[in-house]
Design goal:
By secondary structure, the protein is an alpha+beta fold. Helix content is 37%, strand content 29%.
Length: 156
């Protein structure tokens, strides 16, 4: 093998490795579970503020079921009803507890939100939300959540 061919082969291998690392990191492989869950919370927060049903529902498991009988479809319908309101939403989430055990996690967050004005100006709704998550094919997903139900009162 000539030096030119060896250099070209090494270049191809390097490009292949770089492409593999890039896709591995985009799939979340470069981040630890804690960082992935923190990003999930931030993305859901952003999805609510943008009133993006798909962005929020991307992080809800197909198997979602909570103690009050809500499933994934019910959550989607509730979000659609809330997002129809023309007032902008402002949400502030403070993660207060996060426990990860293998492919399952539990988080608790203090959530403050307001419709029509930024949080901190005028009235806002404060909730403590607890969620159970599971690592699934597409990443971490919420399989159960409690404490968010008070948010619905804002839109009735």
């Amino acid at each position: 093998m000539t030096l030119k061919r060896a250099s070209f082969a090494l270049l191809l291998v390097a490009v292949g490795v770089a492409v593999g690392v890039y896709y591995w990191q985009r799939a979340g492989g470069g981040k630890d579970d804690r960082q992935q869950i923190i990003e999930l919370v931030a993305n859901v927060e952003r999805g609510v503020e943008e009133k993006s049903i798909s962005r929020v529902m991307d992080y809800v498991s197909q198997d979602y079921q909570d103690e009050t009988g809500n499933d994934r479809r019910t959550l989607q319908q509730l979000a659609m009803a809330a997002f129809r309101d023309t007032q902008p939403l402002d949400v502030v989430v403070q993660l207060t507890d996060l426990e990860i055990h293998g492919g399952e996690a539990t988080l608790t967050a203090d959530v403050e939100f307001s419709a029509g004005q930024p949080v901190g100006i005028g009235e806002s709704t404060r909730l403590t939300v607890t969620a159970k998550l599971r690592r699934e094919r597409g990443g971490w997903k919420v399989v159960e959540a409690e404490g968010w139900e008070g948010a619905g009162e804002e839109f009735q």
